[in-house]
Design brief:
344 residues, alpha/beta, Transcription Regulator spoIIAA, 2 domains, 7-stranded mixed sheet, 15 helices, 20% strand, globular
Amino acid sequence: MVGAIVRELELRCDYLTDKTTHTVYFGGGTPSLLSEAQLARILEAVHKIYKVHPDAEITLEANPDDLTLQKLKELKRSSVNRLSIGVQSFFDEDLLLMNRAHHAAMAEQCILDAAAAGFDNLTIDLIYGVPGLSHERWKRNLDKAFSLPVQHLSCYNLTVETKTALYNMVKEGKVADVNDEHSAQQFLMLMDLAEANGFEHYEISNFARPGFYSRHNTAYWQNKPFIGIGPSAHSYNGDTRQWNVSSNAAYIASISRGEVPATVENLTAENRYNEYIMTRLRTMWGVDADEIKTDHGESFLKDFILQIHPFIESGDVVRAGTIYTLSRSGKLIADRIASRLMVV
């Protein structure tokens, strides 16, 4: 797999016209399973093809059970300077329900160990809306997160995916389904506590101390081109999107033949506009009417002004000059607002 990833980097060396990269992200799987030598091999290939900025953000996703002291020392010797740790919860009963391999004490300890190892840019994931997760326990989850040396927090409402153990338990009535009102209340709690603890709510699901926004994800939301390498990886160059085959075996076989196993989608004017609305509306930077007019055209702007008006009247969207952002109430219905603004 590592060999195929390196080879795909070589095959696609001309995909991005700008050879300077400001972020590298190892994720979408379990990259913490990579050995020190394997990680170094991939990063060496990246550096051969791209001019990696000296201050580049290089993130690696990891599960708490993978972050042993030895692993943290290895990662610190590499150029990885940001860790994304899949904590999910600081309570064992939640982790058991979500079928996580680690336990709560392990999650807390790995964060402390990472900080002690010298990592000063840590982000963790937490899940709310979990069946049986009381508001009091959710508050304790957040209090724990804010008490630890964590600079960034990503929080997501639980989604019950089909073909999972949790889905089967919900279907069989053994576990209650996700309650939208309960989840909304916990999201409101999240916003309040994050603000009280000095975390800025810069995207619907993301909160950070000043200066610690995820530069990698922010680039997505600001429509910057990117290349994705490996099975299921997505890429975007401004004109097209493409995604690799998900099968590991098919991916490796194709790359060994010198062929990138990708499906390519040519983006229409409607696609580009809809993606702009969907991504920017979720952020603190909001939608800019001037950008719509310049980048998408007068007809899209007219439709936007027409469709956004009821949400301004309801107080779910706030207008400041040419900028439109979601209010506190609007953040609860962000997807509904975005779907009304999109064109078909």
